[in-house]
Specification:
Blueprint: H1 45-60, H2 64-70, E1 76-79, E2 82-85, H3 86-95, E3 98-112, E4 117-130, E5 133-134, E6 139-148, E7 151-161, H4 170-173, H5 186-206, H6 216-223, H7 231-249, H8 252-257, E8 259-266, E9 272-274, H9 276-284, E10 288-304, E11 307-320, E12 323-324, E13 328-337, E14 340-350
Parallel strand pairs: 8-14
Antiparallel strand pairs: 1-2, 3-4, 4-5, 4-6, 6-7, 8-9, 10-11, 11-12, 11-13, 13-14
Helix pairs in contact: 2-3, 6-7
């Protein structure tokens, strides 16, 4: 769902009817379950990729009508610290004229977020411009899809520019935790990821209302800016802060407890990391000296009863591999497992000055 540079569900619960056959004399009671409605099937990568391509095509033609039927009512986007509503993004799509010569979507990967939601992660490449600006490319894009009746709709969209670690500024290199194909730069990339998280924590740590480090959950809840905050924001921010504190302390066990098994992380350099084991390794096997972490400007959004999004700014005070950490914008997609929220998807982008 390429450039809605903007592009964050609603779902419907299956109704179950149970019926049992009446007992027949001299015969065992038989439960036919004839009227039981089967659980809705999960989406397929092919189905979501098809929607992603259609959305990209509609965006390139300023077709806001397509997005009126494609975006959920609870849709929200978060780009460079700015949150946009469904109405705002529809207006932007309609008014921003683009000249797109070519566009492609590849490296698709679906991340389940409960039974009625999934994040589709892709690599998008665009040759063209919108207004007077060239469209950034290539991008690592992530779209949160939710079930709406028999259809799947977009509830959130985020993108991060894919950067070459060798071409990135020294301060940015730390945050790039790229895939294993760049072995010589593996250490630098892993550090980059840590750096970014540390950076996020740093900036927030500098703020008087945020400096909490020991009881992560309780402290995080207290550190939320009271203005505009709500219970969902407080709950998710407490978990997010707990994760940052665990990252700072290299506490693998604590980190593991707040992640889903298929958790996916998009680092600030556009690298994609899939699964709990890979991400735990990335977040705990880095040479960092982090003094403090903090989160600010947080806002939570309820997408479904069991799916929510947290957007925030994160800072960390310290260094990774000798490089100073810098602030980050973060987006976390959480899924409720029983009574517990867990992180299913995480994206970080560098704060632009």
């Amino acid at each position: 769902m390429k450039k809605i540079t903007l592009l964050s569900l609603t779902a419907i619960t299956a109704v179950i009817f149970a019926a049992c056959a009446a007992p027949v004399e001299n015969k065992p009671v038989v439960n036919t379950n004839a009227n039981v409605k089967p659980a809705a099937a999960p989406p397929t990568v092919a189905a979501l990729l098809d929607l992603e391509k259609k959305a990209g095509e509609a965006w390139s033609k300023n077709d806001s009508k397509f997005f009126e039927g494609f975006l959920t009512d609870t849709y929200v986007s978060f780009h460079n610290g700015k949150r946009s509503t469904r109405a705002e993004d529809l207006k932007m799509i309609a008014e921003t004229k683009c000249d797109i010569k070519s566009m492609s979507v590849s490296e698709e990967k679906m991340v389940p977020v409960g039974p009625d939601a999934a994040v589709l992660v892709t690599r998008s490449t665009v040759d063209g411009s919108c207004g007077d600006e060239k469209v950034p490319s290539p991008m690592r894009a992530a779209t949160l899809y939710v079930r709406s009746g028999d259809a799947w709709k977009g509830a959130h969209h985020s993108e991060v520019l894919i950067m070459d670690p060798k071409a990135a500024p020294a301060s940015d290199t730390k945050d790039s935790l790229k895939s294993d194909d760049a072995k010589p730069a593996a250490k630098a990339e892993d550090k980059k990821e840590d750096v970014k998280k540390d950076e996020v924590k740093k900036d927030d740590a500098k703020k008087p209302e945020v400096g909490k480090e020991h009881n992560a959950n309780a402290d995080a809840a207290k550190s939320v800016d009271t203005a505009g905050s709500d219970e969902l924001t407080k709950a998710l921010l407490a978990l997010e802060t707990s994760g940052w504190e665990a990252w700072k302390a290299r506490d693998t066990a604590k980190l593991s407890g707040i992640l889903t098994n298929e958790v996916t992380f998009i680092d600030p350099m556009g690298g994609a990391h899939f699964g709990k084991a890979d991400n735990l390794s990335i977040w705990t096997n880095q040479k960092c000296d982090v003094k403090s972490v903090a989160l600010s400007d947080a806002k939570g959004f309820s997408i479904l009863p069991t799916v929510a999004i947290l957007t925030f700014k994160g800072t960390a005070e310290g260094t990774c591999d000798g490089e100073k950490l810098t602030p980050l914008w973060g987006t976390g997609v959480y899924v409720k497992e029983g009574d517990t929220w867990k992180l299913a998807f995480h994206l970080e982008d560098m704060v632009k000055k």
